[in-house]
């Protein structure tokens, strides 16, 4: 059909409707399987959980939180709800936070932390919080818009799919849903990326002892070609309203960080969501050795006219 009431089929906290008023392909795309969490193949070993904090309740009310220390002494989130007194906090109250600023990496509380599962420093673990819609466009294929007002620093969604080694997917030019986990490159400020708050703090602690300057390329990526979540429908813009944030919770391997999309500005209802895909010009080479070019239709006033 041309309308789907919920492309997540109940996996998300909030249904995600999809509409196609442009052409005839089914909604959602045929062959696509929704998955709210990252699929990890057996041959990729996720490191053991790291040491957690021993806070009680919510870490925002703790004076000696180990996870806050990892973030440079302050928690990365500010609560978007009025603080409730401790006796009124119950298991149904989620202390959802907004990110104070884009950071090199955010250290969240994880499996070995003793704080409550609704702690503000577990914001990326609380699932979808906004009413979003997937819709078909004339020029850009599928897109995502919000029905809610979203405030700056709000976490929208994780980018999910199948975790793969980059070596596996090299040369798959027909798959436009490969997302490099390039958090270390962001921290180092490589490829023209702007270094963020906390880069210097984490540079030493996140350097792998086996790291050589030769291993500058991301080792892992997320393949959302046939399995993924709403993030794979969010388009590129040369003037985006979202940014990418790397998050670590239960382990400390930056090469396997969680990828979250976060609001950069206040986003009004019915506005399309977008982020910068980060391609360099002439960076995609076809099997024949020639540069592959793809036009950009984002419509921004400073559009580069090409995605790559």
Automatic annotation (TrEMBL):
Positions of the SET domain: 130-278
**InterPro entries given for it?**
H3K9_HMTase_SUVAR3-9 (IPR051357), Post-SET_dom (IPR003616), Pre-SET_dom (IPR007728), SET_dom (IPR001214), SET_dom_sf (IPR046341)
Which GO terms of the molecular function aspect are on file?
double-stranded DNA binding; histone methyltransferase activity; zinc ion binding
Answer yes or no on keyword S-adenosyl-L-methionine: yes
Q: Identify the GO cellular component terms for this protein.
A: chromosome; nucleus
| Domain Pre-SET: residue ranges | 51-127
What range(s) does the Post-SET domain occupy? 292-308
Q: Name one GO biological process term.
A: methylation
Q: Say which domain of life the source belongs to.
A: Eukaryota
Q: Where in the cell is it found?
A: Chromosome
Q: Which UniProt keywords apply?
A: Chromosome, Methyltransferase, S-adenosyl-L-methionine, Transferase
Q: Which SUPFAM superfamilies match?
A: SET domain
Record-linked PROSITE patterns: POST_SET, PRE_SET, SET
Cite the PANTHER family for this sequence.
HISTONE-LYSINE N-METHYLTRANSFERASE SETMAR, HISTONE-LYSINE N-METHYLTRANSFERASE, H3 LYSINE-9 SPECIFIC SUVH4
Q: What is this protein called?
A: SET domain-containing protein
